[in-house]
UniProtKB/TrEMBL annotation:
Keyword Transferase (UniProt): yes
Biological process annotations from GO: methylation
Keywords assigned by UniProt, alphabetized: Methyltransferase, Transferase
Name this protein carries in UniProt: DNA methylase N-4/N-6 domain-containing protein
Organism: Candidatus Berkelbacteria bacterium CG_4_9_14_3_um_filter_39_23
Keyword Hydrolase recorded: no
GO molecular function, one term: DNA binding
Length: 244
């Protein structure tokens, strides 16, 4: 241990790796701001490492993909990539973040979905799920509206578009629940007033549309729209890897 400590003492610290000059706007550019995620590292770490150790066209692998930061930056830098994560929510978020959608197509789909959602009223028939864990976190009014949003998104046939909207839906769940807003730990706040689901969802999607537009334009400018990027929902410990 003393040898390791001595080795670290000899390492010259490079303060530029703190990226202390970066703002939230910098770290959530393009699709990086789609969804909150615990222990998410900023994209600038990935881009610097990729710039230093890889070249355009090199294949990048992230065995613990999380919410897809590595894959997004790899695509922006022209590096094909693949990630693995055991969490299906992480995989959904990643799919949405790495998939630039044609601006006309996604705007059209949002217009249709928005019109459907705005027709909601107390008379709207909604089949809300009956599950003790859902009832534990959501009040009846929010639960019904969230079920309505979920049902309307499920009607969308294009998988990329559906994933995009479900990613946005996932990100508003905490706001619309009684989960203590400032806590990552599962703690209920009985005094919390949950956000109204439909308005919150539409606001979330408008933010994501701006991110998608910037991602699509950036990749188009660089000629990287077709750079392959893939995420797989599985356990990295059981994923075979061949030596090159």
């Amino acid at each position: 241990m003393s040898q390791v400590a001595t080795l670290f003492q000899q390492v010259k610290i490079d303060p530029s790796w703190s990226f202390s000059d970066k703002t939230r706007k910098d770290t959530t550019y393009i699709s990086h701001g789609y969804h909150r995620y615990p222990a998410k590292f900023i994209p600038h770490i990935v881009s610097r490492l990729a710039e230093k150790y890889t070249r355009v066209g090199d294949f990048i692998v992230d065995p613990f993909g999380g919410c897809g930061t590595t894959l997004v930056e790899s695509k922006v830098m022209g590096r094909p990539s693949i990630a693995v994560d055991i969490n299906p929510v992480a995989v959904l978020i990643t799919k949405a973040k790495i998939t630039p959608i044609d601006l006309v197509k996604i705007e059209k789909e949002f217009f249709i979905l928005k019109n459907r959602l705005e027709k909601y009223s107390e008379k709207t028939r909604v089949k809300a799920p009956k599950h003790e864990r859902i009832d534990y976190w959501f009040k009846p009014e929010e639960k019904i509206k969230l079920a309505f949003i979920f049902a309307e998104i499920s009607k969308i046939k294009n998988q990329d578009v559906q994933d995009f909207f479900f990613c946005g839906f996932s990100n508003i769940l905490k706001n619309c629940s009684i989960w203590l807003q400032k806590s990552n730990k599962p703690t209920r706040d009985f005094e919390k007033k949950p956000s109204e689901p439909i308005k919150t969802f539409l606001k979330q999607i408008k933010m994501m549309l701006r991110g998608n537009a910037r991602l699509f334009e950036l990749l188009s400018e660089k000629g990287y729209l077709k750079v392959p990027s893939k995420v797989v929902c599985t356990d990295a410990r059981t994923t075979p890897a061949k030596d090159d």
